[in-house]
Amino acid sequence: MIQTSFSLRLGLYSLLLVFSFGSIAQGLDEPGLGVPSLTPEERLLIELPADSELRILDVSEDRFRVLIQHANQSTPEGALMLLADPEAGPSWLEQTHSLRTYMAEFGWFTLALDLPARQHLIVDTDAESRYVNQITERIRAAKIEIDRENIETLVVIALGRSAGWATDFLRQQPDMAHLIMIDPQPHHPNQWSALIEGMSALTEKAVIDIYPARLQRLPDIRIRANQAKRSDLVRYHSQPMKGEYAGWKLDMPWLNRQVRGAIKTFITQADASIEAKRAMQEPPREQLPPGRR
């Protein structure tokens, strides 16, 4: 796999965007021409904090973007990989913005990844195989970017339909990262088996399942919770969203607090407790007289 990347500070990137928009609008004074409308993605790129970083990754023939927000401290608490819902389209920036910037303020290095939408019917096996490979390679490339930061703790936060892709990827390396699923959906329409099977492999890491408190979602959460019991996922935790969920917004303070609290309780504190117990169970080192080491 050949991968190249470059990064732009978004303050400069915004300036370039405005510059290009100026060339589009250079004839605004001419009769019959109106102000060009910006896409949601273009508007959000302009509004992003100046300390955000845009990186363009190239993997084989696939070129895509990731957004980086560095932690506000010299040694990060850990790294978060935010996987946007593949069906989000340009809204992937809006979907990941609040958590990405909020968690960076509390010491976490965050990377948000845009996943492509499926452009074919699932019965097209060749196209489906290429699509699966594209998703996998994007997640792997994002993981490589995070590895450059030399951060020990990694948490994957999967939004919506990216949950199935996250479990697919993590089941291959179940000790690689903790997983938080927010409003999880299967990546194949109406097929929960792949998500549940992938989740079942994550026996050593925390799996946090945050779901909208809606009656129609209760059967789904019950299936996942029962599967977690059958698979002996001792670090599986499910909890309803603690705010009114009506789609993704730029500012979601209640969800930010809930995710941060779940990470602190079920990941960082739990990891510290596990390490302390492991240290106590290690056999004592043999005490040798001086000169016999």
From TrEMBL:
- InterPro entries, per this entry? AB_hydrolase_fold (IPR029058), DUF3530 (IPR022529)
Which top-level group of life is the source organism from?
Bacteria
Species of origin reads Nitrincola nitratireducens
Which protein is depicted? Answer: DUF3530 domain-containing protein
